[in-house]
Structure formats: C-alpha cells, structure tokens
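Appendix B, Record 12. Input sequence as logged:
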Amino acid sequence: MSRYPYENVPILHPAGTLLEVGVMGVVRHVGIATGYGTVIHSSRRFGRVAETSETQFSRGAPVRVVPYRTALSGTEVVARARGKIGQRYGVMTRNCEHFVSWAISGKARSRQLGPLDLGRL
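Logged structural output:
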C-alpha cells in the first residue's frame, strides 16, 4: 500500500472538483477534491473540517462528480477550503454543504436543510 493517496484511487479528480456520496440513501455528503487523491469536507464523523483520503470520505459508497460554476480556479477553491481545516462541524450552520458552498461562492448555504438553513441568515 502506498503512502500517497493519489496512488490508491481509481480516478484522480482535478483540484476543486465537487464530489458527492449518498449517506443512508437519503442524505448527501459533499466535499472538494484536492487533486492529490484527498478530499476536504466538513464531517460530522470527525467533528470538524478535515482533509481525508477519498476512501475515508466515501466510506465505500460510489462517488459522484457534481458540476458547478464559479469564477475561481480549482486551486483557488482548494486553497479556500484548506483555510477552514479544523473548523468545528455544526449541522445547522457548518455542515458539509455550508462548507462547500462557501468555498465555491463565498456564501454558506445548505439545500438539504431548506427553510431550516441557519447559514443563510
């Protein structure tokens, strides 16, 4: 087994790629690929924003690429995301969608929470 995460993933996603996995068939978990086989995501499991291997991020579930538009380059999105590593997780204001939305657009939003989204206030 290699110590380099990019050698252990079947597809190496470019920096800034938005990745999504299904959790329990209902909830979506999202994160940002770094381009090195790791993903930065706000995780309830870790209680904070963390950079983990894609395998840890997906927990064996299929990974889907989610298209999005932004004026930022992929490396700029990753740099913004890395700046939040260690930030505490909060389901109502700092969940994975809030984190990814902020890294991409500067506005923390969570579609899954709908009208309960406290990040939009």
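Strands lie at 18-23, 27-33, 38-43, 48-53, 64-66.
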